[in-house]
Amino acid sequence: MTDIAAHSEADVVEAVRAAREWKSPLNIVGARTKRAFGRAVAGWGTVLDLSGLSGVVAYEPEELILTVRPGTKVAEIETLLAAKNQRLGFDPADWGPLFGASAGAGTIGGAIAADVAGSGAVRHGRVRDHLLGFHAVNGLGEAYKAGGRVVKNVTGFDLPKLMCGSFGTLGPLTEVTLRIFPKPPLSATLAVRDIVAQEGLALLRRVWSSPLDATGLAYIPASVAFAGLESGAALIRLDGAREPLREKVAALRALLCASDMREIEEGDALFRKLGDGAPFFGNAFDVWRVAVPPASTAGCAAEIASPFWYADWAGGMLWVGSDPQDAEAPAKLRAIAMRAGGHATLMRASEDSRAQIPIFQPEPPERAALTRAVKAAFDPLGLFNPGRMFEGV
After folding, report:
1. What is the CATH number of the domain that holds 283?
2. pLDDT of 156 over the 90 cut
3. At 44, is the pLDDT very low, low, confident or very high (cuts 50, 70, 90)?
4. Does 103 lie in the same domain as 114?
5. Are residues 213 and 149 in the same domain?
6. 226 belongs to a structural domain
7. pLDDT at 153 > cutoff 60
């Protein structure tokens, strides 16, 4: 088989059926901005390029529903929604530059496949909370659909959630329906400066558990010194119309009794950069994302002892840099995450490292068996991105 550029669902069906006939794996790609994320796998066979399967199928602003094809660029979707004062609730990050790709090139299919959620996920949830339905093609070469156009529409298996973060291993998407949100009229980002990690993270948890509905909660330690914040800073973003936002800011000041809390300009851009992993652009660290319960974040960060890290999602997501030459770092980092009830994902590393270090937290036997069973149900011949996440899957 030769490489295939799909422009319709029929093209995808034809490609999968041909792959079955030739027993040739399909390397499913879009804009290829995240090809350096995931296991380094050689010999994938035929490339199935979905970047041409793009465009808006239906947009219903009054119903807060958007249906698009997977090759549609996230930047184009955000521009479309902004014209109606709307947005994607999971605040999709742009990880392309983290892996050396161009900014603004990522597709919505890639965002779903890699579970790409930014700082706003602390309020509105991740991709899995916003994908209402999809069309796809299974390993038998059959087009099918799952989910629908409303939030509560599932009586059986919730397949949209299963697709999020599956890295194309369950098959190519051909259409996706997303829940969208009104764009807030105003936002304010406040920084509590000169605060150490334990105190700053505790402060973020207080805001997170309050009724203020913060849409950004991050901590940047002094060692990172990003965006002019050189002394350790807890960042809080609040949204709303002018008067409600003013009341929220006053309530925040009363809640924290912080003497050095200042509003900073370009707060939305700052949170976007943190979600993108921008503090790591251009440095030599391997990059990890460590998901832990927020109450454990300060202890985990101290135990990991990385010289370069920061926390997002009220501490629920640690971005950690490790020395590529430290062979013991991956096992140590994962052990710390597991003791806290979390897990660690290797985001960025050399191809040699990605061939040797598990990208995703190794699964216990029972869960690994379930993963293989799910893969077999969608893709019995193992055609779709084999080995992209785990060896043999």
Report:
1. 3.30.70.100
2. no
3. confident
4. yes
5. no
6. yes
7. no
* Sequence-ordered alpha helix ranges (H) in the chain: 9-22, 74-82, 108-113, 121-124, 159-163, 197-208, 242-256, 267-276, 297-304, 329-339, 351-356, 365-378
Contact between 98 and 118 under an 8 Å Cβ cutoff? The reply is: no
The two structure tokens encoding residue 149: 């156009």
Co-location of 232 and 334 in the same domain: no
Window from 79-83, 139-143, 255-259, 331-335 with minimum mean pLDDT: 255-259
SS3 328: coil
Same domain as 121, residue 20: yes
Residue 374 within any structural domain of the chain: no
Which residue shows structure tokens 């270090």?
Answer: 357
**Residue 151 pLDDT > 70, yes or no?**
no
Question: Residue 161 has which token pair?
Answer: 């959630």
Q: Model's pTM, two decimal places?
A: 0.95
With respect to residue 327, please indicate whether it lies within any of the assigned structural domains.
Answer: yes
Lowest mean pLDDT among 40-54, 183-197, 297-311: 40-54
pLDDT attached to residue 80: 98
Q: Quote the CA–CA distance of 57 and 255 in Å, as a whole number.
A: 45
Q: How far apart are CA 10 and CA 249, in angstroms?
A: 53
Q: Does residue 244 sit within a domain?
A: yes
| Judgement on whether residues 11 and 153 belong to the same structural domain of the protein | yes
Residue 243 has pLDDT above 90, yes or no: yes
Helical spans, DSSP H, in 114-241: 121-124, 159-163, 197-208
C-alpha to C-alpha distance for 381 and 51, rounded to whole angstroms: 24
State pLDDT tens for residues 271-288.
999 999 999 999 999 999
Q: Are residues 264 and 294 located together in one domain of the fold?
A: no
Residue 198: the pLDDT is: 96
The residue type found at 270 is L
Question: Which domain CATH number covers 233?
Answer: 3.30.70.2190
Please give the pLDDT value at position 222.
93
- Cα–Cα distance for residue pair 320/309, rounded to 1 Å: 4
Number of structural domains (the chain) is: 3
Interatomic CA distance for residues 169 and 212, integer angstroms: 39
Residues 6+ apart with CB under 8 A from 120: 89, 90, 91, 215, 216, 271, 275
In this structure, the answer to whether residues 230 and 284 fall within a common structural domain is no
